[in-house]
Amino acid sequence: MKTMTILVADDDPVIRKLFEKRLHREGYEVSVAADGVEAARMLDKEHYDVVITDLVMPGDIGGIELLNIAKEKDLGIEVIVITAHSSVDTAVDAMKKGAVDYLEKPVNFEELFLRLEKIWEVKSLLKNAGDLREAMDVTETSAAQTIQDLEMLNNGLQGKLERIEAILNDLRLDEYSRIEQALQVIESR
Amino acid sequence: MMKISTDEIKLITKYIYDASGIYLDESKKYLLETRLNVLVQEHGCATYLEFLQKAKVDASKTIERKIIDAISTNETLFFRDTGPFQLLQHKIFPELIDARSPRMAGMKTPLKIWSAASSTGQELYSVAIVLQELLGDLSKYTVKLLGTDISDAALAQASSGKYNKFEIERGLPRDKLARYFTSSGQTWKVNDHLRSMVNFRKLNLMQSFTGLGKFDVVLCRNVAIYFTLEDRKKLFNRIADVLEPDGYLLIGSTESLTGICARFIPKRHLRSIFYQLK
């Protein structure tokens, strides 16, 4: 069950088409952008689980900038950068900035699919943990409310008991008045 | 995973209790195994018993520290349930500032806050953020924010003020993240200013609080649940001793002081409870 949505940003139309075809065949939902600016615009409109981006693209938004934009929007978006062999240093830099992985050109798709599998596994685990946390929060909130009510109720009853005890021990009053006053405390809200 | 025997459970839980006050019974078999298994192997021991013997004769207490680090639960969040922080912001701090403001000009308003089981620091930093946002200019105040914990590993992280993406993703609003943290790659670091407001030190809550002084606010949330009823009674009684007469105590949202400490009375504000001395 692969339901991840992937945004591919690459200025080479041939590579773009290739990504689209291969990822689609693998069962992913793919969208493509011709440069960083278009990708940023798409990120703004829709949520993607994974962004695959070329490091070097024409225009104001390159791979690193796109990475920052994606992470700014949602830290949960995983970014894979594509790099030429000669610029591995930049790719490592991108990973320091939060990219999950990098792939060298020409892209080995089998390798890419493996990495996507891994990302998907981690995302599933995180979702699972998130669901559990949510369930725990609901339980905790409800338990907290009950405990609060009991705590306040107990405190009120404790106060009443102390007042009743004082009244019943008040030997200046006759028995009838003591009982009457004690009953008043019990009936008071 | 290496299995732990019933006899070993008895011995190890007693050891953990003596060292930390954390009370585990036989039902925590799985927890003991998952958290100690790695340590047992790391120290080249064939059984938990052998590992325990090693820990007992270790004069440097390194193994004891590792066991406590492994056993103590460090589940915490920035702004873990919003209730207490709204209480602090809208009720407790405003009241305290009113009460503590000096009659004479030029004197500073003292505020002393203690996070008694600070874990990796998120709670205390969250309190610091609330104070910072509420007061703005802190130069008119002498703020003392103390965090204590039994786990060295937790304290080390708290002092460093460094958090990973999962730690900051949960609970911390975006605007606060941008204002109080600096990111370097996958790590977010609390800004120096915020870090300079807080102090962390090691403290076993079973031991004496001498030297801590008195506090206006004590947060002791979700830690007493790991102690026996008797130890809880002692703990909250000693907390009552270090709380200012008009001070405030906050406990975990699912905790209660009923039958534990009669020196406190619960008060409800908004949807949260705080405690004050009778």
List keywords for this structure.
heterodimer; A: alpha/beta; B: 278 residues; alpha/beta; 5-stranded parallel beta sheet; 3-stranded antiparallel beta sheet
Concise description?
Chain A is of the alpha/beta class and 189 residues long. Chain A has helices at 13-25, 36-45, 63-73, 88-96, 109-168, 175-187, and strands spanning 5-9, 29-33, 50-54, 78-83, 101-104.
Strand order within the widest sheet of chain A?
2-1-3-4-5
Approximately what portion of the residues of chain B adopt beta-strand conformation?
A: 15-25%
Strand portion of chain A: 5-15%
Please give the count of helices of chain B. 11
Question: Can you write the helix and strand succession of chain B as a string?
Answer: HHHHHEHEHEHHEEHEEHEEE
Oligomeric composition of the shown chains: heterodimer
How would you explain this protein's 3D organization?
The complex is a heterodimer of chains A (189) and B (278). Chain A has 189 residues and is α/β, with parallel strands linked by helices. Chain A is 61% helix and 13% strand. Chain A has a five-stranded parallel β-sheet with strand order 2-1-3-4-5, sandwiched between helices. In chain A, strand 3 (50-54), helix 3 (63-73) and strand 4 form a beta-alpha-beta unit. In chain A, helix 2 (36-45) runs parallel beside helix 3 (63-73) and helix 5 packs antiparallel against helix 6 (175-187). The longest helix of chain A is centred in the last third of the chain and has 60 residues, at 109-168. The model of chain A has no long low-confidence stretch (mean pLDDT 92). Chain B is an alpha/beta fold and 278 residues long. Chain B has eleven helices and ten strands. In chain B, strands 6-2-1-7-8 form a five-stranded parallel β-sheet. In chain B, strands 3-5-4 form a three-stranded antiparallel β-sheet. A two-stranded antiparallel ribbon of chain B has the order 9-10. In chain B, strand 4 and strand 5 form a beta hairpin. The radius of gyration of chain B is 20 Å and the shape is globular. The A-B interface holds A 75-76, 95-98, 133, 140-141, 143-145, 147-148, 150-152, 154-155 and B 81, 83, 165, 169-170, 184-186, 253-258, 265-266, 268, 271-273.
